[in-house]
Design brief:
alpha+beta; 10 strands; SET2_Histone-Lys_MeTrsfase
Length: 188
């Protein structure tokens, strides 16, 4: 599968993205179920993957940015895609993605078209984050389906409740502040 794909001209271009930084864009029409680009990098065991990801997250406290390109390959290995020759690392998140990551024989990770993709369309996938640090990952995809944060769709019902709770708490706080101001003004 990958040997034949490597000989062909890439189906995508890399250019600036309104979602975030740079992104991948369809060079030409891409038919549904087409294998577009392989996610490549260093194969690392789970302990090393955790160590690298945690080190990046720790350094982000000083730098303000953490780009973790770890991708789960199987139960034993991950792919650290933080290498210049891994264009797939530039695919941005979307709440309404047009590609998904698929593992081939637990050896390779490929982005595959979920639907027909038009020339010039940005190639996006759902990063599939859990809700552990959801507030640290606002979404900028701008689609009609955007939930506002980067999270796997399976978590959306819970995320919607968390967002509603956060908004309700802000509203209560604002009302309490207004009431306190009104009481203070009445006592003058």
């Amino acid at each position: 599968m990958s040997a034949s794909r490597a000989k062909e001209e890439p189906l995508y271009l890399v250019r600036n993205s309104p979602i975030h930084g740079r992104g991948l864009y369809a060079r030409k029409f891409i038919e549904k179920d087409t294998w577009i680009v392989q996610y490549v990098g260093e194969k690392v065991d789970k302990d090393e993957s955790d160590r690298r990801a945690n080190a990046l997250l720790e350094s982000s406290k000083d730098t303000g940015g953490a780009k973790v390109y770890m991708f789960i390959l199987n139960d034993e290995w991950d792919i650290d895609g933080d290498v210049d020759w891994n264009d797939a690392r530039l695919a941005n998140h979307s709440c309404d993605p047009n590609v998904e990551a698929q593992t081939w024989e637990e050896k390779e990770i490929w982005f595959v078209a979920l639907r027909d993709i038009q020339p010039g369309e940005e190639l996006t996938f759902n990063y599939g984050f859990d809700l552990e640090h959801w507030e640290e990952h606002p979404c900028q995809c701008g689609t009609k389906r955007c939930i506002g944060y980067i999270a796997a769709e399976e978590y959306w019902p819970t995320l919607k409740r968390k967002i509603a709770g956060k908004k309700a708490a802000k509203t209560r706080k604002r009302k309490m502040a207004s009431s306190a101001t009104a009481l203070a003004q009445a006592g003058e």
